[in-house]
Automatic annotation (TrEMBL), chains A, B:
Lineage: Eukaryota, Metazoa, Ecdysozoa, Arthropoda, Hexapoda
A molecular function GO annotation: metal ion binding
Quaternary assembly: Homodimer.
Protein name: Uridine diphosphate glucose pyrophosphatase NUDT14
PROSITE patterns: NUDIX
Length: 206, 206
């Protein structure tokens, strides 16, 4: 697992990633306000390696999950990493990425599959699962999910992300995945859970 | 649908709902920062009315989805509600609510089922589906999902939410739900999609 140190949490000053706004509006005659965020739309890819019948996921340290796992009264200033080790922030997710360039979503999805998991796939190999709205409470960005079958031959690098991304590629058999999602406290987002049950329902029919 | 008017979007000034922070940390020797939010944990309840074999959902205007559906360059200042009508922000979701009081999660879930959908249910009637991490990019809060079967007898009010909540209770047959989730651009969050495929996989076995 990650080596984590020198963790300090301070109120946000200025951010290029997180842009908070307040929306003022009148709904059915009543004046309301709502605080919200502008975040990028995203793509997610459910990868199934048919050479070895393994689902391919990414494991990574998520600062927001780490932060969200620390009680609010202890989550400002310096954090005790002995008490709150990096593991509490490690998630297992679908391969995914933000839409931050003017390319077709399928091209961005293929880039993410390559960068994060090391497989060379083409847009025509992607099956669209659906688009839905993430974070309806505060952000409402669009995420588009795809399904993609790969073979060992398509793996051209070990993946792991670009720049300062630190991503571990994780494989699970269908049985291992079933056991993982049957847990009661899962370090994965709902889009992952959606993907797993979609897979069981649509790709694993007896 | 909602009557929406006087929509203005301004940079966030001070919020009791949305608390942005920056986390500074050292991961495997590299100094990093991450912008994130403190948001409440939440509960979500998948309700199935067994008297009439209908799934029970909530439909509501979500300012964040409305905002996220407007191109960034047009989403500051006054918004043209002719061009961007309220419908673009209307979502269909599981009954849900934030954990903002010191009660067992099951009690909060029962309160939400009553307030939003009008059914009187007891904690012992809830089947835990799982807990998972919402919004792993910026918030990482914990959502706990339950399944609950209800009958018409348990419906003691029309629901619709409390305070200034404007919530419409929506029912779908299993076939209607299947058609809804087979769409390619769904105004629902991934937790809803997870719930639907969980239901199809676990409660609709042939």
């Amino acid at each position: 697992m990650e080596k984590l140190s020198s963790v300090t949490i301070k109120p946000l000053e200025k951010s290029i990633y997180l842009k908070p706004y307040t929306m003022h509006f009148t709904q059915n005659g009543t004046k309301r306000t709502w605080d919200l965020l502008r975040v990028h739309d995203s793509v997610a890819i459910l990868i199934f390696n048919v050479t070895r019948n393994k689902l391919v996921f990414v494991k990574q340290f998520r600062p927001a999950v780490y932060f969200g796992s620390i009680p609010e009264q202890e989550s400002q200033g310096d954090i005790d990493v002995q008490k709150y080790p990096a593991e509490i922030g490690a998630t297992i997710e679908l391969c995914a990425g933000i839409v931050d360039k003017a390319l077709p979503l399928e091209d961005i999805a293929c880039e993410e599959v390559f960068e994060e998991c090391g497989y060379h796939v083409k847009p025509s190999m992607l099956e669209k699962i659906s688009s839905y709205r993430s974070g309806v409470g505060s952000q409402g960005s669009l995420q588009t999910a795809y399904y993609c079958e790969v073979t060992d031959d398509m793996r051209v690098s070990s993946g792991g992300g670009v720049d300062d991304e630190i991503i571990e590629v994780i494989e699970m058999s269908v049985d291992e995945m079933k056991e993982y999602i049957s847990g009661h406290n899962i370090k994965s987002p709902p889009s992952f859970m959606f993907g797993m049950y979609w897979f069981l329902h649509n790709k694993c029919k007896k």
